[in-house]
């Protein structure tokens, strides 16, 4: 099993892949960096994935990229694999077009959209393996 995450300032989207099937997990809603890293660490310890795929922003988003790298540095987990997360949130948003506007807005706020972005990150990683 492989896990992926889309790390943001307010939410961490999560996904897992088992035998090529990618599924979203419940996101982590951040109240602090410590709380979020502790929750993610606990999840990694309980699920025991073979690796964690982390969405990394493109280089021109230097501040965000630095924050993501700092956050994963708080984790006691290896191996970490970094994948370009460019446009994964837009790709995830396409999967919500069937929803009414209010439900789409709720998906953004409750982190479900972030977990769909984590699914896209995991799919990119799987494509790299082929």
UniProtKB/TrEMBL annotation:
Signal sequence bounds: none
Segments passing through the bilayer: none
InterPro entries xrefs: RNaseH-like_sf, YqgF, YqgF/RNaseH-like_dom, YqgF/RNaseH-like_dom_sf
Entry's Gene Ontology BP terms: rRNA 5'-end processing
SMART domains associated with the record: YqgFc (SM00732)
GO cellular component, one term: cytosol
Record-linked CDD domains: YqgF
One Pfam family this sequence matches: RuvX
PANTHER family xref list: POLYNUCLEOTIDYL TRANSFERASE, RIBONUCLEASE H-LIKE SUPERFAMILY PROTEIN (PTHR33317)
Listed name of the protein: Putative Holliday junction resolvase YggF
Lineage: Bacteria, Pseudomonadati, Campylobacterota, Epsilonproteobacteria, Campylobacterales
């Amino acid at each position: 099993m492989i896990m992926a995450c889309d790390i943001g300032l307010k939410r961490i989207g999560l996904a897992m892949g088992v035998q090529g099937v990618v599924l979203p997990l419940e996101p982590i809603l951040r109240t602090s960096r410590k709380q979020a890293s502790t929750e993610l660490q606990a999840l990694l310890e309980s699920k025991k994935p073979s690796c964690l795929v982390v969405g990394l922003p493109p280089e021109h988003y230097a501040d965000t990229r630095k924050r993501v790298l700092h956050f994963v540095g708080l984790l006691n987990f290896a191996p970490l694999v970094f994948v370009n997360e460019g446009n994964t949130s837009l790709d995830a948003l396409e999967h919500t077009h069937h929803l009414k506007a209010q439900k789409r807005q709720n998906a953004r706020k409750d982190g479900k959209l972030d977990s769909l972005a984590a699914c896209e990150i995991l799919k990119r990683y799987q494509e790299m393996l082929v």
